[in-house]
Automatic annotation (TrEMBL):
HTH CENPB-type domain segment(s): 51-121
Keywords from the named record: DNA-binding, Nucleus
Protein name from the UniProt record: HTH CENPB-type domain-containing protein
Molecular-function annotations in GO: DNA binding
PROSITE patterns to which the protein is assigned, alphabetical: HTH_CENPB
Top-level taxon in the UniProt lineage: Eukaryota
Pfam families reported in the protein's UniProt record: HTH_psq, HTH_Tnp_Tc5
């Protein structure tokens, strides 16, 4: 398979060049870096590759977007899911919909490849020592010391070390 070095925006611009700006398909293809046959197919009404394969995917685009938001939210909280956790989550969703077939061997890898903003998020977890040290006893100890030593400082006059 030939590697694509163009985006859907490039294709849309190339089509606009041919329909509204009067360029030939070859000229638009060269200008935008899009294969001429792609422009020709789109002008004849064929769907994009992503639209064509969507019908064969087991999770609708809307659920994929929800899943992406969930992964990004978990990552912002310091709990980015691992590949196996993502797979388990999706398989649970599919089972709720009556689809009991397991996901393909490379599903998670391909999902991340389809959504590049996830590539650095999955598996990026907080250190276990940070969570192990976050106990009610440790929190109470911290706030007791803070109140005794620094209770006289107004909250609006307090900054973090990295805010200076």
């Amino acid at each position: 398979m030939v590697r694509r070095n163009y985006t859907e925006d490039d294709v849309a611009e190339a089509i606009f060049d041919t329909t509204d700006r009067g360029l030939s398909q070859n000229e638009a293809a060269q200008k935008r870096g899009v294969p001429q046959w792609t422009i020709s197919r789109r002008l004849s009404g064929q769907a994009s590759r992503n639209e064509r394969i969507q019908a064969h995917q087991r999770i609708p685009k809307s659920q994929e977007e929800t899943l992406i938001r969930w992964v990004l939210r978990q990552e912002s909280l310091g709990y980015a899911p691992s590949h196996s956790q993502l797979r388990a989550c999706v398989e649970a969703i599919l089972q709720q919909q009556g689809d009991n077939k397991p996901l393909g061997k490379h599903w998670t890898t391909r999902f991340v490849k389809r959504h590049p903003k996830l590539s650095t998020k999955l598996g990026k977890r907080q250190e276990a020592a940070r969570f192990d040290g976050f106990t009610p006893k440790a929190v109470n100890w911290y706030f007791d010391i803070r109140e005794n030593e620094y209770g006289w400082i107004k909250p609006e006059n307090t900054v973090n070390v990295d805010e200076g």
